[in-house]
Specification:
The chain has eleven helices and twelve strands. With 337 residues, it is an alpha/beta fold. The chain has two domains: 142 residues, Rossmann fold (3-Layer(aba) Sandwich), CATH 3.40.50; 171 residues, Glycogen Phosphorylase B (Rossmann fold, 3-Layer(aba) Sandwich). It has a six-stranded parallel sheet, sandwiched between helices.
Length: 337
């Protein structure tokens, strides 16, 4: 009996390496499928993938916005199962994310995305709110939620520490000023008044959002290709932040920012919003914060090492439910039936 097979065209950087969504949404699940006997291969995104992709039972296109790709996908659909993968709500991108907003508000790009999704048998997404947006925008009859997972090995990584300091951390991609703005006043107050605290930005450098006199540093720009071990190895946080601005685009976001920290035993302060409810347990693995809560909760954790350790241990245990070994079967089901 022939092993199930899949070929995926993933989202990558101009250098040819996967960007974070390409890694989490394609390469990580495909690696898990290979461990379970699948013939699972991938290449950088193509509107017209190479001939070798035609031999797979399932073809996956991640975030395909190329005009004309729908014709190719429809042809492939005659002999392959076709899947369109997306982890962002391209139908509600805010103007602040300027490049993406300019691209996806163009009628020709928007219509290409809709046509490409409709041409596929299945659309896979990260969350139910995102699934609802895709259904409403495209009318697609088979949109499936396949949540993000983290590598099992992260649970075994040691906590990185900065002796004598309490590190507040945030991982952010570009144009997320409004998200950090939700917690900025609280961070500024704690950095100014609690000795030994500092801010660590990973990903995009957001130090400009804080007064220059305050202790803050930046590492691991997302535009640079680093291994997942190097990425997780950079987390020296004692407290992880996961603030979200209350805008439609964020309602479809996943809880990956919190899960990455939780897997390393780091308590999370997250916005009391849909993406984090059910992932961060208030008072157990961190806190779910409403607008007036950030200052109080951040100060509590900054001053209480014992609470941080207890919540961090709880967070790491909770993260076990979200590793790829527990979630790969949802990818398998989406790809075969």
């Amino acid at each position: 009996m022939r092993s199930p097979s899949v070929w995926a065209a993933y989202a990558g950087l101009p250098s040819g390496v996967p960007n974070p969504c390409g890694w989490y949404r394609v390469l990580l699940p495909l690696a898990a499928l290979r461990e379970h006997g699948w013939d699972a291969r991938a290449g950088i995104g193509h509107a017209d993938p190479p001939p070798e992709s035609e031999t797979a039972g399932t073809f996956v296109l991640q975030s395909g916005d190329q005009p004309g790709a729908a014709v190719i996908l429809a042809e492939r659909g005659k002999f392959q199962r076709t899947v369109y993968e997306t982890d962002d709500d391209v139908f509600s991108i805010p103007p602040a994310i300027a490049a993406a907003y300019a691209a996806y508000t163009r009628p020709e790009t928007r219509q290409a995305v809709i046509a490409n999704m409709r041409a596929c048998h299945v659309v896979t997404v990260t969350t139910e709110p995102l699934a609802e947006s895709v259904r409403a925008s495209t009318g697609h009859p088979d949109v499936r939620v396949v949540p993000n997972c983290i590598p099992d090995a992260v649970l075994g990584l040691p906590r990185r520490r900065q002796p004598g300091r309490t590190v507040i951390g945030w991982t952010g991609s570009g144009a997320r000023d409004a998200d950090f703005g939700v917690a900025r006043d609280a961070v500024r107050d704690v950095l100014e008044t609690v000795p030994g605290t500092e801010m660590h930005f990973m990903g995009t450098d957001y130090r400009y959002l804080l007064p220059a006199r305050l202790p803050a540093r930046h590492t691991h720009p997302l535009a640079v290709s680093i291994s997942w071990r190097d990425w997780f190895g950079g987390f020296d946080f004692d407290i992880a932040l996961a603030p979200l601005a209350d805008i439609p685009f964020n309602r479809s976001r996943s809880a990956l920012k919190a899960l990455e920290a939780m897997a390393l035993g780091i308590p999370v302060l997250a916005s009391d919003a849909g993406p984090y409810r059910g992932i961060v347990t208030d008072g157990v693995t961190g806190y779910l914060c409403r607008p007036g809560d950030w200052g109080k909760r951040l100060r509590e954790l900054a001053l209480d090492a014992g609470a941080r350790e207890e919540m961090g241990a709880n967070a790491r245990r909770a993260a076990r439910e979200h590793v790829i070994s527990a979630g790969w079967r949802r990818w398998a089901r989406a790809y075969v039936a």
